[in-house]
Amino acid sequence: MIVVRRDLKMGVGKTATQVAHAAVLGAEKSRQTDFATFSKWLDSGQAKVVLKVRSLEELIGLRQTAEELLLPVVLIEEPSPKHFMTGLCICIGPAQSTSIDKVTRHLKLL
C-alpha cells in the first residue's frame, strides 16, 4: 500500500517516480524483515494500491500507526529548499492485507 501526499501538487511524472521508489524500497524492507510474506506477495502478482492523504501530518500519523502494528513501512523524503526533509509518500508492506487495512481503510484511491 502506497500513500501519497496531495498537498504538494506534484505532477504526474514526479508522483509516479516517488510511488516507484516507495514500492521498491517497501518490497526490499519486507524481503529483509518477513521473507515468507514477501515471497507470497511476489508469487501472487505483487499487488500495489496507491492512496492519498492531504498533509504531512496525516502521512506521518499513518507511518507511526503502521510502525506500532510492526508493519514494514518506508518513508520517501526529499530535501526542501530550506534543507528540511519533506515526506512525499510512504509504503506500508508488503504485509497481510488485514493488518494494512487497520491503518489505511479510511483513505481514498489516488
- Could you name the CATH class? Alpha Beta
Content-based structural category = alpha+beta
| Mean pLDDT level | 92
Number of structurally distinct domains = 1
C-alpha geometry: globular
Give the strand line-up of the largest sheet: 3-4-1-2-5
Q: Would you write up a description of this structure?
A:
With 110 residues, the protein is an alpha+beta fold. It has a single domain, classed as Bit1, CATH 3.40.1490.10. It is built from 4 helices and 5 strands; from the N terminus they run βααβαββαβ. 32% of the residues are buried. The mean pLDDT is 92.
Concise structural overview:
The chain is of the alpha+beta class.
Labels describing this entry:
single chain, 110 residues, alpha+beta, Bit1, five-stranded mixed sheet, 5 strands, globular
Give the SSE map.
Layout: E1 2-5, H1 12-33, H2 35-43, E2 50-53, H3 56-68, E3 73-79, E4 85-92, H4 97-104, E5 108-109
Parallel strand pairs: 1-2
Antiparallel strand pairs: 1-4, 2-5, 3-4
